Amino acid sequence: MLNLLPLDFVSLRLLVLTADHQNLTKAADAAHMTVSAASKRLAELERLTQCTLFVRLPRGLQLTPAGKGLAEHARQLLEGAQRMAHDASDYASGVRGHVRLFANTSAVIQFLPQDLTCFLSTNPHVRIGLEEALSEMTIEAVEDGRADIGIFADNIPAPRLEVRPYRRDRLVVLVPQAHPLARRERVHLVDTLDYDYVALNQGSSLLRRISDAATRTGKLLKVRIQVSSFDGICRMIDAGLGIGILPLGSVQPGLLDAKLRAITLEDEWAARTLFVGVADAARLSPEAANLFSYLSDLEPPALG
Q1: 264 close to 186: Cβ distance less than 8 angstroms
Q2: Are 205 and 104 in contact (CB under 8 A)?
Q3: What is the per-residue pLDDT across 186-218, written as a single tens digit (0 to 9) for each?
Q4: What distance in Å separates the CA atoms of residue 107 and residue 217, rounded to the nearest whole number?
Q5: 52-94 per-position pLDDT tens digit
Q6: What are phi and psi of 295, to 5 degrees?
């Protein structure tokens, strides 16, 4: 087993910079050191790791497989050290705990801004790191420990998590004001499937929900264009590129009536529940447990 304890963060940063630039002079400039000092540090890294990290070429450097692998490890170590520095700074200034929260787009756009504002108003010494992710990625992040808490759609299984209801929303069909469906107050999905759709990219729980529902009718969803955000869907619908299905709360109020029309979708599956989940509630930090409890109590129980 190699002893890598003599490695220092300056050398690790130089390794990452050299991997990024593949040029020793540029890497040395970025690290604010001379070329000779940088070359000496890289040579010492190769001695300690017993690996050739770079192939020296007339016009730069080329990473060996070992160089690529170790540069990635160095990048992760530096990111960890940066997070440690941020945490230490927070603790020094009175922050008592960090909570890592992953959430899908529906939660981030519709509910979390107000919900987290209210939570933090009574818990000012908690720092929440929020990352927007697809529902599947959110569940995976909680399962593998990258997130303390996750918020995700109800049609994505999470059998390994402790799950509670977070919020409920309602899907609507969004169409341009001049669209033939705009005269309707209510529709079923099957009434819309002859028209082109604007949808989220593959992997989203919303696209899966709509596609599965279309398949149950015996028809296919005709996706004309796919985008990565709810705002992108609205813009494409406004441009006449198709219709779409979105949570009503995700549509900017100024767009409704002025440019777009939201039509009630009568299908049962159009009523959704967003869930909040954790890997093990008993093992959460006090701050994470407090946030989990808060998010779980926001929505009143469903009637019936």
Answers
A1: yes
A2: yes
A3: 999 999 999 999 999 888 999 999 999 999 999
A4: 28
A5: 988 888 778 888 998 899 889 889 888 888 777 766 665 655 5
A6: -65, -30
Whether the domain at 97-166+272-296 and the domain at 169-271 fall into the same CATH topology: yes
DSSP letter, residue 265:
E
- What dotted CATH number matches 97-166+272-296? 3.40.190.10
How far apart are alpha carbons 110 and 93 in whole angstroms?
31
Angstrom distance (rounded) from CA 292 to CA 150: 9
Domain 9-92 sits in CATH at 1.10.10.10
Nearest to 8 by CA among 48, 67, 35: 48
Cα–Cα distance, 99 to 21 (Å, whole number): 35
* CA proximity to 240, closest of 182, 183, 200: 182
Helix (H) or strand (E) segment spanning residue 233: helix 230-238
Instruction: Retrieve residue 30's tokens.
Output: 């970025």
DSSP letters along 157-176, please? --TTSEEEEEEEEEEEEEEE
Q: Is the dihedral of CA 95, 97, 98, 103 positive or negative?
A: negative
- Going from N- to C-terminal start, the domains of the chain cover 9-92, 97-166+272-296, 169-271
Strands 162-176 and 271-278: antiparallel
* Residue 68 token pair: 């690529």
Q: What is the 3-state secondary structure (H, E, C) of 48-107?
A: HHCCCCEEEECCEEEECHHHHHHHHHHHHHHHHHHHHHHHHHHHHCCCCEEEEEEECHHH
Q: Whole-model pTM?
A: 0.69
**Residues whose CB falls within 8 Å of the CB of residue 88, separated by 6 or more in sequence, listed in order:** none
76 vs 70: CA distance, rounded Å:
10
Query: Shortest CA distance to 272 belongs to which of 174, 156, 178?
Result: 156
- Which CATH superfamily does the domain covering 169-271 fall into? Periplasmic binding protein-like II (3.40.190.10)
